[in-house]
Amino acid sequence: MTIKERKDGHIDICLERNVTSDHNSWDDIFLVHRAVPRVDLEDIDLTLDLLGRRIQAPLIISAMTGGTRKAMEFNRLLARGAEEFGLGMGVGSQRSGLNDGGYLPSYEVVKEFEVPLVLGNIGAPQLSSAQGDKRYGPKELEQARDMIDAHAICIHLNYLQEVVQPEGETYVSGVLENIKRMAKEFPLIAKETGAGISREDALALKGCGVKGFDVGGLSGTTFAGVESFRGGPKETRMGKTFWNWGIPTPVSIRVVDVGLPIIATGGLRNGMDVVRALSMGASAGGMALQLLKAASRGYEALSSELDIILDEIKATLFLSGALSVSDQGSLKGIMMGRTGEIFEGLYR
């Protein structure tokens, strides 16, 4: 199967199949209501500085795709939305663009728009010493940056997907050393893709010099599930076995709090979930599947969805007694149910 076929297949599966985890942990986060809000709704300030860039709301259009004509059209729509609403945006893995210039337009389309925060995307397995001469280094990261005028590069840690994927690359030797070397030259974000980041790994990655985390926790799209729909009998079985593997997103936010910015991706469905993430300690929320589905219906649908999400964020902050996005101390989020039990179990 070609890279193009695999990437288009991932998009189709996400749009047509149920590929979310069996339990969404955001339903376990209870926000305390304030009967008397502290400021008029219209005065709630959604703007924030993230990774040295000013964005107009605590929302990142998370990395989704690239490398095909279909991906190019999605990236154009998403970048247009990011420009209109002043949001951050990430692209999918840029490996195909680095390996074959023919795929570049599907990523470069982002540069047609004034996106205030653009995040590139390179896979951790490509940084492994096991790749030999094919190992990515500063040259490839510079190319990835220039491809989309990125302000930072995400190193995506997708080993769960690689374990299940027929073409999976499970190389990890030398990855941390290479991240440490390249973090001296580029702002890097450590990004999971659906299984969350532990405190031990957060501390190790902070020691390597990353500038922040995208926890990409369990609750939303499970790429083990995605792969279960496109492989043979073994991949189908493995995908089902590991469907719900990982650290729930709210738990990962809490344990990854080591003094760096945190983007909470994984299962966010609306603006209330974004504020729930803020109450756990995230700097911003990241959405992928929700916005991919909206974009599949055209730009008007995507713009409407983003507009509603931002209104939901403002309303939830208002009803929770917060003055602004940065007023996280006023948010009282309580972790309950199965998610709370997992968090408590980590500290027994």
Structure commentary:
This protein is an alpha/beta fold. It has one domain: TIM Barrel (Alpha-Beta Barrel). It is 41% helix and 14% strand. The protein is built from 15 helices and 12 strands. The chain has helices at residues 3-16, 69-85, 95-99, 105-108, 138-148, 159-164, 175-182, 199-207, 223-228, 233-241, 249-255, 271-280, 289-295, 299-319, 337-345, and strands spanning 29-31, 48-50, 53-55, 59-61, 88-90, 117-123, 152-157, 188-192, 212-214, 262-265, 284-287, 333-335. The strands form 3 sheets. Strands 4-5-6-7-8-9-10-11 form an 8-stranded parallel beta barrel, surrounded by 6 helices. Strands 1-12 form a two-stranded antiparallel sheet. A two-stranded antiparallel sheet has the order 2-3. Helix 2 links the parallel strand 4 (59-61) and strand 5. The relative contact order is 0.18. The mean pLDDT is 94.
Sequence of secondary-structure elements = HEEEEHEHHEHEHHEHEHHHEHEHHEH
CATH architecture: Alpha-Beta Barrel
- The percentage helix is 40-55%
| Cα separation of the termini | 46 Å
What is the compact description of this entry?
This protein is of the alpha/beta class and 348 residues long.
